[in-house]
Amino acid sequence: MSAKPIHSTRSLLRAFQKARQWPDSAGFIDDLTLLQSKDLDLSVRLGALLAADALLLTTAVNPIAASPGAPLSLDAPTQPFEVMLVCLAILLLVWSGWQCVRGILIGEEFRLEGDEGDAKLVIQRMLAAWCVSVDHQLASIAKAARLTLAGGAVTALSFVWIMGAKILG
């Protein structure tokens, strides 16, 4: 028999209801609630980091988009290294944003390779799917946080370089 993924909320609910009826499922609800809470917490953190990336990205773009003569404006032909530094900051922040979106989009999909009526199997697969999802979100947020810090630092460095060059003439 081929493995069928549980796609709809209805089929997930049915599997959950079957698992609750299993005699040894007393702690199952608590386990699932813990994993769901962790998943929700990470999703909120990923969303907040994505918003921070958007703000930093808007800041990083300013030197390239600024009108000529503005304090942070760049002239690509005469300031190629500064432009490349700003582009590096933008790249790091976009990469961080991608890691955030990737972490948010991870689902709790699981397959039942066997009898859908086996409550123990349903519980095992459901909890394993949540654990995998949480682990992937943790990895995504760790990568994204490092990239955000690096992108923010490169942005700050580029701003100091640009302003220093303008001040020193």
What does this protein structure show overall?
The chain is mainly α and 169 residues long. It has one domain (4-168). The protein has helices at 9-21, 28-65, 80-105, 119-168, and strands at residues 4-5, 111-112. A two-stranded antiparallel ribbon has the order 1-2. Helix 2 (28-65) runs parallel beside helix 4. The radius of gyration is 24 Å and the shape is rod-shaped. The mean pLDDT is 83.
Short structural description:
The protein has 169 residues and is an all-alpha fold. The chain is built from four helices and two strands. Strands 1-2 form a two-stranded antiparallel ribbon.
Mean pLDDT: 83
What is the H-and-E element order? EHHHEH
Largest sheet: 2 strands, antiparallel
**What's the β-strand tally?**
2
Q: Looking at the structure, what is the overall shape?
A: rod-shaped
Strand order of the largest sheet: 1-2
Fraction of helical residues: over 70%
- The span between the termini is 75 Å
| Beta fraction | under 5%
Q: Report Rg.
A: 24 Å
Number of domains: 1
User: Which structural category fits the helices and strands?
Assistant: mainly alpha
How many helical stretches? Answer: 4
